[in-house]
Predict the 3D structure of the following.
Amino acid sequence: MLRGEIEATEVYRGTFAGGFQSPSGTTDSFRILLVESGQLKYIVGGQSLKVGAGGLMLIPPGLWRRWEVVSESEAVLSWCIIGTPKVPVDVSMPICRQAEGVQEHATMQRLGEQFRLVPDRAARLYMEGEVKAMLARMLAPTPHPRPAGGRRQSDLAIARATQWIREHFAEDDVLSALHARVDLSEKFFARRFKALEHVTPHQYLVSVRMREARRLLRNDCALVKQVAMAVGYSDPFHFSRLYRKHWGHPPSDEAAAPSRGVQE
């Protein structure tokens, strides 16, 4: 993502009253959201995330989402919409990090100042550099204290687990088979997985399956029932419910013909 051309197409800053609820919809581009003050409940990609002051989110395109201000006081938000990169991007779920001091606030402010100017090549290159630097900080591995070698080994085990899920997502009882392979207690594994990947193992598995399902529906024009089986679901109705929850619309909307798919 960071090697391709990236353009900040819009930069906004807004104040929202306590209790404000956004309309729901599907994102069509990458966006970076910074919560300057207040607290949000952000529902995206089947996840419900609480994001407080200083929270920084990278939200990939194609995900159904809505959010609301859950603090009694108003919330101040800054966000940057990024034009679709011209290279493949392997970010399918939102990434949520805590901003480092005032650095991201200052970056958003500079982006807003540049965006309001008459754009020229120099300004576009400057904004691209600022956005790429922010993305690099967000995509970098989260630093964790490592008081002993055991923590380092467990983090390597999580990395191997995510790779194994991506390779075996369509098999039966994926998570049970995974737990049998990982030399960690199930409770500790789940806690470390969530800390490193920001989702549970089950949510990660569903995300991988939904991404492959969308690819098959869009590129291969396969029947919904066939796609459900191909990504690990024997019940197409259950698959359709999960797909709607993840992407915000039924899988039949992706098919080449409206007649294809499970009737809901």
